[in-house]
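[job 0417] fold request received: histidine kinase
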Amino acid sequence: MERLRFNLRRQLIVVSLLLLSLPWAGCQFIREMEGALGEAQEQALLATAETIAAMASERPTLIYTDLGRIADPGDSHQSVYAQPSLHAVVVDGYAEGWEDVPRAHWPASHAEDSLSVSLQALTHSENLYLLLHIEDEEVVYHNPGLSREPNGDRVILRTWQNGRRQDYALATAAPGSVRASAAGRRERGVDAEQIWGYWQDALGGYTLELEIPLELIGGRLGFYVIDSKTGNDSPVHTIGNTAPLDTHAPPWLIHTPDAVQAALSPFRAQADSVHLLDNAGWIVGGLQTSADAPRTRETFWLLRLVYRSILSNNALTQAPAIQASGKLADEEISHSLSGAVSSRRYQDPGNNNRALRVVSAPVLDGDAVIGAVVVSQSSEQYLSLTDQAFSRLLGYSALAIGLGAIGLLAYASLLSLRIGRLSKAASHVIGKNGVISSNFPSSNAPDEIGELSRRYAELLDRLREYNDYLRTLSRKLTHELRTPIAVIQTSLENLEETTASEHSPSPYLIRARAGLSRLNGILQAMSEASRLEESLVQNPLRPFDLVPLLRDMQGAYSAIYPDHPIELEVPEEPASVNAAADLIVQLLDKLVENAASFSPPGAPVRLSLQPSGQTWILAVSNQGPLLPEDIRSTLFEPMVSSRTTDDGQLHLGLGLHVVRLISDYLGADISAANTTEPPGVTITVTFPAE
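[job 0417] inference complete; emitting structure tokens
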């Protein structure tokens, strides 16, 4: 399996991924900035809460219309909570516009009794508005013929004036407009008919919508419903937050005076919501603003979403909602009335990617806690300040990553190009004939790659000088050895003439003559190789047909090597190549001589010529010993021989080197391979077709 190339360009692309740390670092910086802005928001909210608390401490009437409620908060389950209304209430007996108003419910006291009542309350201007839903299986209307005093089903309102109870009865002979009448001692100057409303039938009972001036109530409000039956012996049932025989003051009316809203309105821009609580946890005043400020519209929504997602904190709990009864959640009340300043963070119920900061401060009267201020604000208020910073950071990071990646890619491409050129030059520095090229590019660049190319050039220059020395060594040796060999030969001839008359030649002379003959053979072989290199350029190449040449050479080789049958396989069509006939003959001489010398007696030497695409393959095969693996790559180098036995002849390993010189000159490729059936060696020469 080919190993995947992991070049410099890919490596630097991987390294460029480290640039992604830039936006990560930017996000960490934004987180730190968000933390700093969160602390600043907390300090601002604390300052707002403490300012409002200080104002309420100096003016307790902002929380308590009756200061007696500080020491006697009463039963919170029986108190009536009235929510301020921004719009005038239309009194018509129907529940339109009351859908979002908190409702208090008093169920039936006995299982067999179906009587129950629920109450909703609003304040607007100087009036209190009540909506009572009475569930009654049998509605009995007032009968004026029985008595002038209210009879039948009726509602009794109990207020508090100058330390005394004031009861007002509301009954009607038929659905429609109704006015109150005094149901007991009446305080001087109080007109009961100022309390009026509408009585309307409803499914399973009736509804009563009332308008009451706040000045008639005196800070306390009780009520009970009297359920009459048609039978004289039927018991009368009552239900409400007070009872007919109660002698103590009625429960408190909790509402928001106009002075509270006026005092809190300067703080509208400081927070999303402000709540002023009494010591029982009732919300007696508050402001609510929209958390979706238009200041973030300039930021693209997708960037804002990404930014909010980065800063989101899913570990935060949901903010507790305001109870329908007009109180905060019990946890918030305990935090707010603890007597100490507190700060908490929740998940914004309007958006899971935002946080909600809630700060509370106690309202103190001396050492006593008489109320609390709860201020909350969404993180959107300060996150919007960093939207533009985040978008710019994202843009700058993307630009920096892009420029860094392009720069690294360009630098990697330049390095890859320079190293590729160096690698290509190194791969082509040695030609097919083993000659080292002298045009290796040497860079002048002052970096490591330039230094490497210059070192390569110096190394190749030295190697080329050494190679040139080796190539001319045989010529130099031939020239230097001819004279001493001639002297030795002359001396041996004179010595033989001197001793010829005495007796037969000495064995020492015979051995000296044999050694001299061997030295002459060495010089002749070396001279042949040297002359061949010089004579190659004197043989011009021209097209000619290999087939008739091979047929002629078969007959010649059969006469030269009678112990080895010469087999020939050639095609019928011409095999035209661009070569020189003399060189082809010399090449065949060396190959056939080498094949015959390795073949056992009687084994054939086979010549074949086969077409292969745009080439002709000339093969010379013989039976005999296989080529050792350690010399297959250097078989055609000079002075290389694979013979393991001494046949008494001189073998310098120059024959196949001559074959390679000829094939290189002709532009042919030469190779050697072992064969298995029969065992032997095949040498192939591939000529390009003319």
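[job 0417] notes: The chain is about 35% helix and 25% strand. The chain has five domains: 24-64+258-385, 68-254, 429-463, 473-534, 541-688.
[job 0417] exit 0
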